Amino acid sequence: MIKINNLGETNSLFNQFISEVRNVAIQSDAMRFRRNMERIGEIIAYEISKTLTYEKRTITTPLGEVEMNLLKQQPVLATILRAGLPLHQGFLNYFDRAENAFISAFRKHDVEGNFEIQIDYMSSPILKNRTLIIVDPMLATGKSMVLTYKALLSMGAPKHIHIVSVIASTDGIEYLQKYLPASKTSIWVGAIDYELTAQSYIVPGLGDAGDLAFGEKI
């Protein structure tokens, strides 16, 4: 089984930011919504940093030298456009030397309202034996995330994958458990909701994260 890290289960200031991105009276402020997503990304980035590999390095100060444990290798930060950008920025604020990958994935609807996920753009560094962090604010069906992972494999197999979502559905998590390698994957979420609408939107969720951050799309 893939390990699920639900940070919302622990009482902390983290839940204040989760509550504000959900709150219809606050989320209408797009700048605050983006900043809260960024804060959430920063907190999860810090938690993930505890799981990475470190090595001792000698640091020279004005008065001498000191040995410190520093990150051995920077992760690769990947996000799904466009909704993932503020969350991605939070990670980049902390992993400020990381390389980055960007994927455009979208729902292509048919006349009956059904949809399939399509990817039409990807930019990524080599991923072989790297730690890969994929961030997307909402994990609904999980299909976008799995397709993103499979597309990124063309750049090499990572040694470990961290999947990050602010709000996930139980269906989405079950889908990842089915299609991602359990021994190489960790999932990090701020909350888990138990319902999807007929259109596969999370309930209670928070709405459309991309629209709330950047305005409604046509």
What does this structure look like?
The structure is a single chain. This protein is an alpha/beta fold. The protein is 30% helix and 35% strand. The protein has 6 helices and 12 strands. It has helices spanning 14-22, 30-49, 85-94, 143-152, 170-179, 209-214, and strands spanning 3-6, 54-61, 64-71, 76-81, 99-109, 115-123, 131-135, 138-139, 160-169, 185-193, 195-196, 202-203. Strands 1, 4, 5, 6, 7, 8, 9 and 10 form an 8-stranded mixed sheet that branches. A two-stranded antiparallel ribbon has the order 2-3. Strands 11-12 form a two-stranded antiparallel ribbon. A hairpin with a 2-residue loop joins strand 2 (54-61) and strand 3.
Q: What oligomeric state do the depicted chains represent?
A: single chain
What portion of the residues fall into strands of 2 or more residues?
25-35%
Please estimate the helix content.
25-40%
Low-confidence stretches: none
The H-and-E topology, N to C, reads as EHHEEEHEEEEHEHEEEH
Number of helices: 6
User: What is the 3D form?
Assistant: globular
The chain-level structural class is alpha/beta
Average pLDDT level:
93
Separation of the first and last Cα atoms: 39 Å
| Main β-sheet description | 8 strands, mixed
Radius of gyration: 18 Å
Number of strands: 12
